[in-house]
Each structure stands twice: as structure tokens, then as C-alpha cells.
Design brief:
Layout: H1 2-17, H2 42-54, H3 59-78, H4 87-95, H5 101-112, H6 119-130, H7 133-161, H8 170-187, H9 193-208, H10 213-246, H11 250-263, H12 268-292, H13 305-316, H14 320-329, H15 337-350, H16 354-364, H17 373-383, H18 389-410, H19 424-431, H20 435-440, H21 442-451, H22 458-469, H23 476-489, H24 493-502, H25 508-527, H26 532-545, H27 550-564, E1 571-573, H28 575-580, H29 582-585, E2 606-613, E3 618-623, E4 635-640, H30 643-663, H31 673-684, E5 701-702, H32 705-709, E6 721-728, E7 733-740
Parallel strand pairs: 1-5
Antiparallel strand pairs: 1-2, 2-3, 3-4, 6-7
Helix pairs in contact: 2-3, 3-4, 4-5, 5-6, 7-8, 7-9, 9-10, 10-11, 10-12, 11-12, 13-14, 14-15, 15-16, 16-17, 18-21, 18-22, 22-23, 23-24, 24-25, 25-26, 25-27, 26-27, 30-31
């Protein structure tokens, strides 16, 4: 008796302790549901007749079949049977056969008021009803007015609210707010973003319904809005032309000025800009012509021995330095003295004396109008970032220091008064009230720069240009060392190691440390790649370039695992998605056993990774390992399912994701062409033929909404006003104030900006 009780206790203990280790093997999936042949009834035949008539050309026949279908539905209700739920779809299908969009939207509105509809169908009809040009235009006009009102109210409310603890500054802040609103009104386009959207809707309505009374009323409004739109494009072209002139781009300024004149041929401002651009272009052409001009007659007397010496020095490898000195020492200097000095400086550079070369170029460089052509050429060479990268590097570093100091000292005014399309003196006058807050913010800006110092790519680009142009130059070693440290600061360890490998004087320990970091970074880059061939290429590169590092050896292991576990597809369905969509996990989809999603680890539980479609008819099911948690690596079980189950699964998965996206924007799954291609092959029952192309592989993941955002969604307030707490250290502003909610921009707003 005791032995039997002990045996029972041992068995119970083993069962209780099995936990997640009790992976049921081949019992993870329930057997496929057997389906009997479905016999269509009167409702099915009536729905077929409605669909057949709606797809035809006779609208009256479709309405007649709809009436017959509705009679069938009434008979079902009279017999006590449940409604089919197809009446809304049938009505919507027949409504969609109307050639008039207005009639169709009116019928759809009536359908929304009829009663219960499938949520997905209701959402679709609501979107179609809302897609009314006149309604959308009215909404955009209202949003534009609301945005303008909210801007004014919010600006004044913020100025007063921030003065709760500093009432003495209230008049100043209020005055600043009023001035700011006036400037904002001045900078506003003649036609707002919302009005541009409304204009497009009005034009669409007039084009599709030109004979309606509303279309005749809209023509005058469209013409007025068009004029405002042309004025907006003229203003934008004028401002862009002015900026082009400031940056010495007269060709672009001329193009923009002519564009502005197309919208307003009599605009004086546009004409002045065009004329100024033409003058600059003509001046450039004249300077170019003088540089390329050929001087008539000999530059030197044919009998002058110095001319002969210079020719021999330049063409036959003579003493260019002595000839240059002789020409320069002549009284007065010979006409070719600057050319000889240019040739001497060039010879210094070819001999490896880089500093002497640039000193020689700088000695003769000049951009004066009466300067000889060789002096202007020397000036261009000295100032060219490609020809003189060392000077560009030094200039970039100096510019960075100046910009940082200006940002600390002057904050938003580091680059001058903000552009408000006003005279410069007026713009500086408007900035006067911000001088005190600007000075008070210096300590805070010092802290910000200490935490996150500003960076610029210009010094690094110049340094790379120098190393490429002068691999054995005077500054090569120092620039390479600086560039290595800069790449490390930017956390670009692969590039830093490549530079360190070329430098003979780099500390071996530092080189080994960079190799480890570079290998690790390469692995991180590989993990982000979706294509298997690109991922494998990066891992193989890491393993080959860094074989003596821990990360390099890890990359080699990852290559081996990648090859061993390679699959045609890796379309993952997470546990969160399956929990939110139990139908996909149920017998109509995957057919997972219910206990795998019941939250009880003792009978086996699905890992958060979920189920992965590996291509063909193969699945990989991730299970919680014994005694492990969700964050630990799973135990995987591979199973093969039937062609029929795979076809039903991908169809249900796609249908569910599209339905979820329609009902909830947060459930958007996104597009993936390789996934869709694989799903289509699975639906057709030909997924068993492996597609080896890397571009055909998908790594898409279906993830639940809560899992994706890691939060419980909150409801958006329906109140048009919200309370804002605001504080500012530089101007000692602290307070609370109400703010009107600004209307949200529509997804297509970017097309109208």
C-alpha cells in the first residue's frame, strides 16, 4: 500500500513539476477540423443572385434581386432563424452601382442609419460617406479658422499664464506676444494650408458635377482662391530669390525671379531681384572672359635672357627657383614674375615641401579686379577645399569653435536676427525684448553643450580629403590620429579601426580595442538587415576581418547558425497578436492547443516570440523553456502542416490584419511584398516549391497592438481646451494657462505645403 501511494505521489510530483518542460511534442496543434460539404440554402442563392446582378449592366435587375434577398431575410426572421448578416453588404453592393457619387453617398448615409451593421462594413461606409468634396472642403476651411484663432488665443494666454509669479514682466510678455502675432500674420501665406486643401476639393467637385447649382456657386470662390495661391507662389519665389542672392547664387536667383514674374508680371520687387541677378551674372561672365583672354604680342622681349631661362626651367627641368627670384627682383618686376612664382610654388609641392607650396600660392593670391589672371587662379586654389584640404580643416575647426561660442553667448540670435521678411533694422528691433532672456540663458546653454556638444561633419570631411590627396603629407599623421578620435566620438568604430589599421604608430592595445568594437558594431548592423544574403555578408566580413576578437568569433558562430537554420521565410506571428486575435490561433487558423495560451506554465506555454512560418508548409513554434521567463530564449519545435491548413491560415491572417487596421489605426501592420508573394503561393497550394532568391525572403512580424506600443491605450479628450504647465529658466517664466487644441493635420497635408 505504501509503495502504491509513493508511486502515486511521485507521479503527481512529476506532473506538477513538468512546467514548461512539458512541451507536448507533436500535440502542439489540434487535428484539423473536418468539414462536411456545405449545402447552400435560399439565402445563399439569393445573395449570389444579388452579386451576379450587381456585376452586370442592368441596375434595375440588381435592385430587383435586392428586393428578393430582403424577402428571403424576412422569411428567415418569421421562421425564427438567425439573420444571415448579409443584408447590409447586399444593400451597399447595390448602392455602389450608382453612377452618381452624390446619390451613392446619400444612400450610404441612409444605410448607416438602418441599424446594426458589421463593424468593418460600418467603418468602411463611414469613410466613404466622409469622402465628400464639399464636406471635406467645409471641414478644412473650419480647421483653418480654428487654427488661426487658436494661435492668437494661445499666444496671449501663454504670455499671461507665465507671469503668475513674475507679474512685473506681464506687460513685457504681453507686448512681445502681440508683436509676435503681428509678425506671424505678416509671414503667413495669403492662402493657408487648409484653404489649399479646400481649393482642391472644390475643383474636384466642379469637374465631376459641373451642372449642379453648388458648382456654379463655387466658381467665384475658386477664382479668388486661385489668385491667392498665385500670390503665395510669387512670395515664396521672391523670398527664395533673395536668399539665393545672399548666398552668391545669381543663376538660381534669376530663375526664381523670372518664376515670380510669371505669377505677377508687374511686381516691382520681382523685377529688381531679376535685374540684380542679371547684373551679377554679367559681372561673373566678364571676370571669366578677362581670365581667359589672350594677350596680343609677346609678354617678354624675345632678347631678354630671363625669358629664355624661364622657358628652359619650365620645359626642361631647370632651376625654377633661381629664375623666379630673378624675375621678382627685377626693377620693375618682369611681367611673368607672378607666373614664375606660381611655378616655383608648384615645384615646392611636387618636391614634398607642402607648407612652402601654400605659402608661395598665398603670396601671389589676389581677387582684385585689376589683378593678373595667375593671381586669381592662385586665390581659387588656396580657397578650394578639394585643392587645399588642410586649410579647409583648420577653417572648419575654427568655424565650429566660433559657432559654439556664438550659440552659448547669443542663443537663438547666434546667426543674427530671425528672418521675418522685413527690413533688417526692423528685425533687430523686434529682437530687442529677447536680449535679457538671452543673457539669462547662458548658464543653461553651457550645461546643454557640456552634456551634448554640437558636432559638425565639415572637419572630418576635410581630414578625409587630405588623407586621400596627401597620403604622405606633412599633416597626415596628426590628421589620421584626429580622425580616429573623431570617429570614436561618433561611435563609428568600423571606420575608426580602418584608419587605425593604416597608421603604424597606433598603440596595439587601442587597435585591438577598436577591432573588438568594430566587430560588435558590424554584428549590430547585420541584425538590422532583412535580406539574408546581406546579413550573411556582413557577418562573414566581421568573422574574416576580426578573427582574433570575441565578437569576430561570435560572428563566425552566427554565420554557421544562420546557414544551418536558414529557411525560405521567417514570417512571425507573436503571442501578443495571437492573444488579441484568438480566431487566428483557433481551429480555423493555426489550431494551437488552448492550454498554450492560458497563462499556465505547468501545461506548456507559448513564448512571446510566437509561431514563425518558415516557408513551404513548415512552422517553428517557440515554447517557454523549463523554469524560464518570457525574456529568456525559447525552446523551438518545428512542425509541418497540410497545404489546406496553410492556405486557410494565411488567408485568415491577412483578413484579420486588414480588418483590425480598418477598425483601429494603431493596428496597422504595414506592407511587405515578399510576405504577400509567399501568402499568395500558400493560398494557391504551391508554397512547397522553395524560392531560393534572397529578395523573396520575408522577415515580417505580426505583432499585437499592446505588445507594439507597450502600453494601455488612452482615450483622447473630447474637450477643445487643455491646461498647460510651462516653465522657462532663462526668462524665469513659470505658470499654467489654458490652450485651445490645434486641429491635427491630415495625412495628405504634406502634399500642400
Amino acid at each position: 500500500m505504501r509503495r502504491s501511494l509513493a508511486g502515486v505521489a511521485i507521479a503527481l510530483a512529476a506532473t506538477a513539476c513538468a512546467g514548461a518542460a512539458g512541451v507536448p511534442g507533436n500535440t502542439l496543434l489540434e487535428p484539423p477540423t473536418r468539414r462536411v460539404a456545405y449545402l447552400p440554402d435560399d439565402t445563399d442563392r439569393a445573395a449570389r443572385d444579388v452579386a451576379e446582378a450587381a456585376l452586370g449592366t442592368d441596375a434595375s435587375a440588381a435592385r430587383a434581386q435586392l428586393a428578393a434577398f430582403e424577402s428571403t431575410e424576412k422569411l428567415r426572421r418569421a421562421a425564427g432563424e438567425a439573420p444571415s448578416g448579409l443584408d447590409g453588404y447586399a444593400q451597399h453592393l447595390v448602392d455602389a452601382t450608382s453612377d452618381d457619387a452624390i446619390v451613392y453617398r446619400h444612400a450610404s448615409s441612409e444605410l448607416l442609419d438602418r441599424g446594426e451593421l458589421d463593424p468593418a462594413l460600418r467603418k468602411q461606409i463611414e469613410m466613404e460617406v466622409a469622402d465628400d468634396p464639399l464636406l471635406l472642403a467645409k471641414q478644412r476651411i473650419g480647421e483653418g479658422r480654428r487654427a488661426r484663432l487658436a494661435r492668437g488665443v494661445n499666444t496671449l494666454s501663454a504670455a499671461l499664464g507665465r507671469s503668475i509669479f513674475t507679474t512685473l514682466l506681464a506687460p513685457v510678455r504681453l507686448a512681445q506676444a502681440v508683436v509676435g502675432l503681428a509678425v506671424a500674420e505678416h509671414l503667413d501665406d495669403p492662402i493657408s494650408l487648409q484653404e489649399r486643401q479646400a481649393l482642391v476639393q472644390w475643383k474636384q467637385y466642379v469637374e465631376t458635377h459641373p451642372e449642379t447649382p453648388a458648382a456654379h456657386e463655387l466658381i467665384a470662390r475658386i477664382e479668388k482662391m486661385n489668385q491667392l495661391w498665385f500670390d503665395t507662389k510669387r512670395r515664396r519665389s521672391v523670398r527664395a530669390a533673395e536668399q539665393a542672392l545672399e548666398h552668391d547664387q545669381p543663376e538660381l536667383a534669376l530663375l526664381l525671379g523670372e518664376r515670380a514674374l510669371r505669377y505677377a508680371p508687374e511686381d516691382r520687387r520681382s523685377r529688381r531681384l531679376r535685374d540684380a541677378a542679371e547684373e551679377k551674372i554679367e559681372a561673373k561672365k566678364a571676370a571669366r572672359a578677362s581670365t581667359l583672354a589672350v594677350t596680343n604680342g609677346p609678354l617678354l622681349d624675345a632678347g631678354d635672357a630671363r625669358a629664355r631661362d624661364l622657358s628652359i626651367a619650365l620645359l626642361a627641368g631647370g632651376d625654377v627657383a633661381a629664375t623666379s627670384d630673378a624675375l621678382s627682383a627685377a626693377a620693375p618686376p618682369a611681367p611673368l614674375a607672378d607666373a614664375a612664382r606660381f611655378a616655383r610654388a608648384n615645384e615646392e609641392g611636387e618636391s614634398g615641401r607642402e607648407s612652402a607650396m601654400w605659402a608661395g600660392f598665398e603670396a601671389i593670391a589676389s581677387d582684385a579686379k585689376d589683378a593678373p589672371a595667375i593671381a586669381r587662379q592662385a586665390k581659387a586654389v588656396v580657397e578650394s577645399p578639394q585643392q587645399n584640404p588642410w586649410r579647409a580643416f583648420e577653417t572648419a575647426k575654427t568655424t565650429n569653435v566660433k559657432n559654439t561660442a556664438a550659440a552659448v553667448a547669443f542663443g537663438p540670435l547666434a546667426h543674427g536676427a530671425r528672418d521675418r521678411d522685413l527690413p533688417r533694422s526692423v528685425e533687430w528691433l523686434l529682437e530687442a525684448p529677447s536680449l535679457v532672456p538671452m543673457l539669462g540663458g547662458i548658464p543653461w546653454r553651457l550645461v546643454q553643450i557640456g552634456i551634448a556638444p554640437p558636432t559638425s561633419k565639415a572637419p572630418g570631411v576635410a581630414a578625409e580629403n587630405y588623407l586621400e590627396r596627401y597620403p604622405h603629407g606633412e599633416h597626415t599623421d596628426s590628421l589620421r590620429s584626429w580622425l580616429i578620435d573623431d570617429e570614436v566620438r561618433r561611435k563609428r568604430f568600423v571606420r575608426a579601426y580602418a584608419l587605425a589599421a593604416e597608421a603604424p604608430d597606433v598603440d596595439p592595445e587601442k587597435r585591438a580595442e577598436l577591432a573588438e568594437k568594430a566587430a560588435k558594431q558590424t554584428i549590430e548592423m547585420a541584425d538590422k538587415q532583412r535580406r539574408r544574403d546581406v546579413r550573411l555578408g556582413l557577418l562573414q566580413t566581421a568573422a574574416a576581418r576580426f578573427p582574433d576578437t570575441a565578437s569576430g568569433r561570435k560572428a563566425a558562430e552566427m554565420v554557421r547558425e544562420e546557414i544551418e537554420n536558414a529557411s525560405e521565410q521567417r514570417v512571425r506571428i507573436s503571442r501578443g497578436f495571437l492573444e488579441e486575435n484568438p480566431k487566428v490561433a483557433g481551429p480555423d487558423g493555426l489550431g494551437l492547443r488552448r492550454e498554450l495560451l492560458d497563462g499556465n506554465d505547468r501545461n506548456g506555454e507559448l513564448h512571446p516570440t510566437g509561431v514563425t512560418l518558415l516557408g513551404g508548409r513548415n512552422l517553428e513554434i517557440a515554447m517557454l523553456a523549463p523554469g524560464k521567463k518570457d525574456g529568456d530564449d525559447p525552446e523551438t519545435v518545428r512542425q509541418t502542416i497540410s497545404t489546406e491548413r496553410l492556405s486557410r491560415l494565411v488567408s485568415l491572417l491577412e483578413e484579420t490584419s486588414l480588418r483590425n487596421e480598418l477598425l483601429d489605426p494603431l493596428a496597422e501592420q504595414g506592407a511587405d511584398a515578399p510576405r504577400d508573394f509567399f501568402f499568395e503561393r500558400a493560398r494557391l497550394g504551391v508554397a512547397g516549391a522553395v524560392d531560393p532568391r534572397p529578395t523573396a525572403s520575408s522577415t515580417y512580424a505580426f505583432i499585437g497592438v499592446r505588445e507594439k506600443y507597450n502600453m494601455v491605450r488612452s482615450r483622447e479628450s473630447i474637450l477643445p481646451v487643455e491646461i498647460v504647465l510651462s516653465g522657462s529658466l532663462p526668462d524665469l517664466g513659470l505658470g499654467a494657462f489654458p490652450r485651445i487644441r490645434m486641429p491635427k493635420e491630415t495625412p495628405d497635408a504634406v502634399l500642400y505645403k
